Structures are given as C-alpha cells and as structure tokens.
Amino acid sequence: MSELQNIFNNREIAISIWVALAVIISIFIKPVKQFLNSVIPILFCHKFVVFYVVFLFHLCLMTYFLYAIGFWSISLLKDTIFWVLFIELPLFVKTIEKAKDNHFFTKLIKDNLAIAVIIEFVINFWTFGLIAEIIIVPVTVFIGLLYALAAREQKYWKVKQLFDWIFVAFGFVLIINSGKHLYENPMGFFNLRTLKEFLLPLLLLLLNLPVIYGLALYNTYEQVFIRVKGNKTENIKMKWSIIKFSGIYLSKITAIHNNLLYTTVISLTDNDMKENLKKLKNKLSMQIGDNYMKRANYYILWCIIGFLISILGIVICNSQVSLKDLIAFNFTMDIPRVKEIITYICSTGVVFSFCFFIYSLGFRKKKNEEISQVKKYALHNLLYLIKRQYDVLQEFPPIDKPKELFVQYVMNAYELKIECDKDIASFENLLASWELDTIRQLYTSVSKVVFSIGIDETEISRYTMEEFNIYYSEKKGAAPQNEQINVFVHDVQKGIEKYSDQIKLCVEEFKRYF
Fold first, then answer.
1. How many domains does one find in the chain?
2. In this structure, is residue 24 part of a structural domain?
3. What's the distance, CA 135 to chain centroid?
4. Burial class of 413 by CB neighbour count within 10 A (0 to 12, 13 to 18, 19+)
5. Are 472 and 432 within one domain?
6. Residues 107, 154 share a domain
7. Sign of the CA dihedral 333, 339, 340, 346?
8. CB neighbours (10 Å) of residue 190?
9. Mean pLDDT, consecutive 10-residue segments, the chain of 514 residues?
C-alpha cells in the first residue's frame, strides 16, 4: 500500500477502489450487459480503431519528444494516463459535437489557462488520509446525485439550498487543508516536479491539438461526403473538388456543411460542384465577421514567428551543443566572427519583431473595437432582448403559473424569435461564423418554445395575461396525461429549460457587446 501511495495520492486510490467495485458489480447487471453488448461493437469498429492507432502513435511521439528534451519522466506516467482518460477522451466527444472553426480551439486553450485550473490543481494537490478519502468519495457522489435530482424540481428548492451550503463548506475545508500544507511545507509544492505536473496537461493539450483538429476535420468531411450525389465517377470527382476547395481548413469544410442546400444537394456533376463552390467562395469573401480581423492576426502571427526565429538564430549561432541542450537552455556562448554578424542580424530581428508585435496588438485592438461597435449597433435589439430575458431567468421557470410564465418567458421568446430571424437574414455577412451559429442555436431553442406553446406569432401580441392563462389551462386540460406527466406542460417545461440554457450561452458568448 505504501508503494501505491508513492505513485497515487489517497484520493486517486479511493476513487480507483470505488470505480473498480462499481464496474465489477455493474457487469453482472442485465441492463448494463445489454448496453455494453450494443456499445462495444461501435467503439471498436474499423474507423474508431484506426483513430485509436493514430492517436496513440501521436501521443507516444509527443511523450517521447517531452522525454527527449528532459521534461517527461516515468514519474509523470500516472498524470499522462489520467489526462488521456479524463480529459482527452471526453474532449474527443466534445470536438465531434462542437468543433466547427478556430473559435472552438481558441476557447479551449483559454479555458485551460484560466485561473480556475490553477485553483483546482492546488486544491487537489493535497488530500486527506486514505480512510477519510474512501469515505468522502462515495458520500460526495451520493450528495451530487441528490443535488442533481433536487435541482430539477422546485418543491425540492430547500434541499438544493442545503446541498449548496454543504458544497461551500466542503470547499472551504479543502482550501484550508491546502493552505495548511502549503504553510507547513511550501517547498513540497514549489518545486520542479510540481511545476512539471502542472504544465503537463497544458503541454499535452497543445501538442495533441493536431489530432483533435484532425478529428474535427475528418468528422466534418465525412458528414459532407455522405451527402454528395451523382454516379460513382462524378461522386469521386466531386469529393476531390471539395478537398481542393477546403484543404485542411476546418472553417471552409464547415462552410460547405452549413450550406449543403447550395453546394452538395444541387450538384449532380463535378462541374456543378465547382460552380457552386465558386459561388460559396464569393459568399465567404463577403463574410465581414470572419475576415475583418485577418490582417491584424496575420501581422501578429508573423511577429511571433520572426521573434522565435531570431531568438533561435542567436542561440544556434552562439553555441555548439545538441538540440536537447538548446531547448533546455544548457549551452555556453561562442562568438566567432561569422556567427557574430548573424547574431547582430537576429538581434535586430528580435527588436523589430517585438516592436511590430506591439503595434500589431494595438492594430488588432483598434479593429476589434471598430467591428464590435458596428456589431453592437446592428444587434442592439437582439442584445437588449437577450439581456432582458437573462435578468428575469429563474432557477425554476414558473411552469405552473401561466401569468408569470407569460410575462417572464413567453413574450420575450416570441420577440426573440422574430429578432433572431431578422438578424440572421440581415447580418449574416457581418457576424463571425461562431456568432451566427450561436444566434441560430438561440433561434432553434426559441422556435421549440413557440411550437410547444402553440400560439401563432401574429396572434401573440393580442393576448393579455388573463387570456393566456385561460388558453394555457385549456391546452393543459386537453393534452394527454398519465399519473405524473402532462404532455403539454412537459413540452413547455423542456422547451423553456433549453431556451434558458441558450440565453445563458448567448450572454457568455456576446459578453463583450453588453
């Protein structure tokens, strides 16, 4: 046990014990066995096996690279395995579902650089005794399940509040425990090994971005290819035309996927496909939201590249050591005449790149402020409606109180549907693709609310609270119902919940415009 505790901390051992017990018990339960029998063939189909091989090969290659430069060692094997199981694999699922352009990857990196990641790392660095952790783990899981159930029903609101206080208290205990250990043994945390453990997930994420990007690219290509029509010969030619058009650019193949009706669906020959792709290219060139910042980002990228090349040139020309020692900054200076000249050139490059980098940042900020002001003005009504709805969102929408529901949700939803429809049509070229996609998701959720309510958009303005109350009661009474669920109320509730989540997402995505 002591050897295990040298490799794994007490919390990891406790979680492993409970997970092992849960797996052993689950495999003897019939529904679980049926689920595994249906899922395992899918997980190990030909396409997934190929992807697993590519991913593992790339992971091993990147791990060896970190080992070669002196960063990775066998002591980090546990952290690497945990990262693959609990970060990378769920990220693959998220990538297939949400990765559509570079905005996804930018947000992914920002999330992993957030201060919350540092706090979580510090809190999880120290644990309680093994017996305490074995008790804490199932209790935490049980309370989490109860909390999830309590959060679904308004009648359990007081129970949810109790659990909120329990989680806050437990968080304080963890923080105090971490602070105590940090005070008693600061060098147990501030050392090279801890720094490597902290940086490892970020480095693995950055180094494995090509695989994640490739997965998103392959998934989008596959969704487009299955909709390509025509005979076998023309089908192959059209697919090659799509590949030539999109290449390795996720944004371009996503643009085809978002415009299937105007590209693949109406193309029966390769000539049709080329003509439609040409029209799509012209349309994308008019997409101000995607193109406006390109020049500033281009400047910044080349400043960074120039800066790195210049630094590398200085180091190479002033040392005679291996690449490993160069990366580890373990070298001595040597200044022959030829290298000295190159050093001066590279030094000038460093200064020039740095100065131009500062200018490029200012240039990008200025352009960003300009386009933000334009978008803020164009989307004023939409942003106002989103903010107004966000301010009256409730933890539990008043589904059983039609008058409150009408004032706080229904009227706003109908107005938002009209505004979303107008803005999607009017400002498609102004918005970035991810902004447009966010508004389209909002439109979809609003449409579900409107459909579940069942009142025509042209008629909703004539309704008062009293009239809506009568209408709601009549629809509820006429809807199919069993002992627990009324179909009409259930559909309205699910629609409102999805709509509320989308409002929160819009506030987060458009927060710089508010």
1. 4
2. no
3. 33
4. buried
5. yes
6. yes
7. negative
8. 10
9. 54 70 72 70 74 86 85 79 78 81 77 59 57 71 72 68 74 70 66 73 85 89 87 87 90 87 85 88 80 77 79 65 55 56 71 78 78 86 93 86 91 92 88 88 94 89 89 88 83 92 91 82
In a domain, 9, yes or no: no
Residues 309 and 400 in one domain: no
State which residues form the domain around 85.
52-210
Residues 6+ apart with CB under 8 A from 371: 288, 289, 292, 293
Considering the domain architecture, whether residues 97 and 182 belong to the same structural domain is answered as: yes
pLDDT value for 289: 76
Domain membership of residue 459 (yes or no) is yes
| Tokens 């650089």 found at | 113
In this structure, the answer to whether residues 83 and 153 fall within a common structural domain is yes
Give the end of a domain, one of 338, 367, 396.
367
- In angstroms, the Cα distances linking 45 to 99, 211, 224 are 23, 19, 21
**Hey, what are 181's tokens?**
């250990």
Q: Inter-axis angle of helices 130-150 and 10-26, to 10 degrees? A: 60
Q: What whole-number distance in Å separates Cα of residue 384 and Cα of residue 438?
A: 16
Q: Are residues 322 and 244 in the same domain?
A: no
pLDDT of residue 155: 66
pLDDT of res. 316: 65
CA distances from 74 to 33, 35, 395, 501 (A): 36, 36, 47, 43
Per residue in 500-509, pLDDT (tens digit) is 999 999 998 8
Q: Looking at the domain assignment, is residue 396 inside a domain?
A: yes
Domain end marker among 210, 243, 260: 210
86 shares its domain with 134: yes
Lookup result for tokens 């909709």: 227
Say yes or no: 206 and 78 in one domain. Answer: yes
Contact criterion met (CB below 8 Å) for 228 and 266: no
Report the C-alpha gap between 218 and 228 in whole angstroms.
15
Nearest of 267, 256, 279, 277 to residue 229 by alpha carbon:
267
Q: Which of 410, 501, 394 is nearest to 449 (CA)?
A: 410
CA distance 407 to 113: 40
Residue 485 CA to residue 468 CA, distance in Å, equals 21
